[in-house]
UniProtKB/TrEMBL annotation:
Residues 1-19 form the signal peptide. Keywords: Signal. This is Lytic polysaccharide monooxygenase.
Length: 221
């Protein structure tokens, strides 16, 4: 009995020298750590729109965004971007959603396809993959509310807490020897545009998350 008590005392003393591991941070926790308490990781359904940063987030001047046609090139392989409604007025995916930090296009009922956003890379278009398989998006996105001067505008999209570095840039998509002029979303555009867009055409935007008619609410972890 004494031996058992002594062994227990040794084990307790040893365990006190080590900190117990903390529970793994949730996507919601990570969003709020980098972007404040008004950030969230799950939300939807919503549509996407771009609004020029020189305008109020509450203005009616936002431009709807849709997934562009598929493009294949040596730099990014096969990819799709977000194009303005003015240059590509076709909504293959009627709504998007944030799911634990991943940005997805809600499955197209007629095709069974889903879309997932890739983690944005500086100086490159903001790209998506369209898949028949289960979606596994990069969990790097958050929505942030209360970013307008009026503090009541639509939520905006952020990458690792950054909502300030999206732009709309003009691109000449070339597929099967056909050129399609599109205005697309680029993250942190640079003069070295890799031939994927015209840097001089770029202007800064916020990416808004506009609730669908059915309504959208942030969802906790």
């Amino acid at each position: 009995m004494l031996a058992s008590v002594s062994l227990l005392a040794v084990l307790l003393a040893a365990s006190s020298a080590f900190a117990f591991p903390h529970a793994r941070a949730t996507a919601e926790d990570r969003c709020q750590q980098v972007a404040g308490e008004n950030a969230f990781a799950s939300y939807g359904p919503f549509t996407l729109a771009a609004v020029n940063k020189t305008l109020s987030l509450n203005s009616n001047a936002s431009e709807p965004l849709h997934l562009s046609p598929s493009v294949t090139n040596s730099t990014l392989g096969q990819w799709r971007s977000l194009a303005t409604n003015k240059t590509y007025p076709f909504a293959e995916f009627s709504a998007f959603a944030l799911n634990d930090g991943g940005l997805i296009g809600v499955n197209n009922a007629s095709t069974g396809l889903g879309a997932q956003a890739d983690a944005p890379q500086q100086a490159y278009p903001f790209t998506f993959e369209v898949l028949h398989s289960t979606l596994n998006p990069d969990p790097v996105f958050c929505g942030i509310v209360g970013t307008s001067a009026e503090s009541n505008g639509p939520a905006v999209l952020a990458v690792h807490g950054d909502s300030e570095n999206f732009s709309i840039c003009h691109s000449e998509y070339k597929t099967n020897d056909t050129t399609t002029p599109l205005d697309i979303v680029v993250y942190h555009p640079r003069a070295n545009d890799h031939g994927l867009y015209n840097f001089r055409s770029c202007y800064s935007v916020y990416i808004q998350l506009l609730p669908t008619a059915a309504g959208s609410t942030p969802v906790g972890p």
